[in-house]
Amino acid sequence: MLYKLFQKKVFHIEPGLERIRKACEELGNPQNDFQSILISGTNGKGSTSAYLESLLRYHGFRTGMFTSPHLVEENERWQINRENIPDKILEEYIKGLKPIIQKHNLTYFEASTLLAFKYFSDQKVDIAVLEVGLGGRWDSTNIVEPELSVITNVSLDHTHLLGDSIQKIAFEKVGISRKNKPLIIGSPQEEIREEAVKKGVKEIYQFKKDFNFKIKGQKMDYHFDIYDLKNLNPSLIGKRQFNNLATALTGFIVFAEKEMIPLSFSNIREAVSSTRWQGRMQILSKDPLIILDGAHNEDAIRKTYKEIKELFPEKEIITIYSGMKDKNIEEILKLISKNSKKVFVSKIPVSRSLTEEDLEPTGLNFEYIPDIEKSISKAKSELIENQIILITGSLYLAGEVLKQKI
Predict the structure, then answer these.
(1) Which domain holds residue 160?
(2) What does the pLDDT look like over 193-222, one tens digit per residue?
């Protein structure tokens, strides 16, 4: 598949939009053949994309959805009406696009984006939900003219590329906004709004200022402008998902109003309760209780522990962790150790995965078992009655675990 074409260059990043622009021009600019929505943010953009796609589809739209990374199979990156692109069709697109990919020296993500644009254009989708890969300003998805843009939140991640402060990273992510199109901000962080105002964005809807929600057990009440939706029942567990849902719902309502699409509250409820998204607070097993969460940085991991303790207050947590070596490993492991009865650290079969050598400077107490399957087996064998297993640290780890079908 496309992954194989790039081999070790999968994680290669080259800022700039010229290459993807020229490649798209050669194809007749397929990204202009459908409406689009851009979604960026440090955490939660995948779940927000899934909720927004579901809301659009349940209101009769033929949807495209482009997300990354994939968890189990590469086909997940390109979906129409939540159906993965079939193997045979993916192979045909790769074969057809290979000369253009090579001519313009596209990175893996740029090639994935090009394929998404061409596939969605050929399949005549009405609208595509496009998840930004990294940052926003220089991300290859940012050559579209979105109907609206969404920024879920900002925290310190990929600082070597995006900047070493919340303000600098907010500037990069606000790069997906357009002056005359709505921007939805799923966080109360002032830095994001400040950067959007500096850019000249005229229409901003921000969590707590313009829309809000109230949690009632596993349900929520949502309020925005004239809309009060009671007892919404999100399909994804964890308090973060209430925020992601509210952000997606605001984006959907703003889009629907501009397009004069009649809202169906029964369709909204059905879309909300049927949205699926693997690897995010996903219960893999109930006996023993095993939770999989692709949290990949300190902020997300901290929220994961908070949610698990709220959902299962009497349980001790055994954590299996693996992640990428470019993260702040020492701080992440300190956080994990503080919240866990025992920690197992494993290795993901990708080039950026942390290794035992990366862990040595931390001086923290954990058991290193490089094989993921063996680390899960060991954790299960040592589990006692009041304990649960959390597997976390990366969506790539989540993908490896899902392949094993625990």
Answers:
(1) 2-274
(2) 999 999 999 999 999 999 999 999 889 999
